[in-house]
Write a structure and sequence with these properties.
Layout lengths: L1 H21 L20 E3 L1 H8 L6 E5 L3 H5 L7 E2 L7 H6 L6 E5 L4 H12 L5 E5 L2 H9 L1
Length: 144
């Protein structure tokens, strides 16, 4: 009887120890990399900061208007190029741009330009992308 109790106790202890060991986290290996926190890789740019940039334009700065043709017909920032974010080939057209340049991306109010900036940096490999906060609506209001 003492032997049976001893073996039952030893077996229970072994099971408990094994169960606790299996709950430990597996060490990180190349097959199980740690997940990095997702962050925006573009910069939100204020209207004032853009005005300062705009007064000192260089060849390396590209202003990208991602609005539709009817929106652009109402006016655009001087020197900007347009690629419609809602167009069928937006990603393909943007992928043709020089990834080494600095971009200021804008739309009407800032929503599409933020999405375009995210696409450019996270999927297309652009390194220097700025999303113009407030978009053309705020820019054109400041001009008046």
């Amino acid at each position: 009887m003492i032997r049976t109790t001893f073996f039952t106790f030893a077996f229970s202890l072994l099971l408990l120890t094994t169960a606790c060991e299996s709950k430990k986290e597996a060490p990180q290996t190349e097959a199980t990399p740690a997940l990095a926190p997702v962050t925006n890789t573009y910069t939100d740019l204020s209207q004032d900061a853009f005005k300062n940039m705009e007064s000192n334009l260089t060849e390396d700065l590209v202003i990208l208007d991602v609005r539709t043709d009817p929106e652009v017909a109402e006016g655009m920032i001087e020197g900007a190029i347009q690629i419609d974010y809602r167009g069928e080939n937006f990603a393909e057209e943007v992928a043709k741009l020089d990834t080494s340049k600095t971009y200021v991306v804008y739309c009407r109010t800032g929503g599409r330009s933020a999405a375009a900036s995210k696409l450019m940096t996270e999927e297309l490999g652009f390194k220097k992308v700025n999303n113009l906060l407030g978009g053309y609506s705020e820019y054109s209001t400041d001009e008046n």
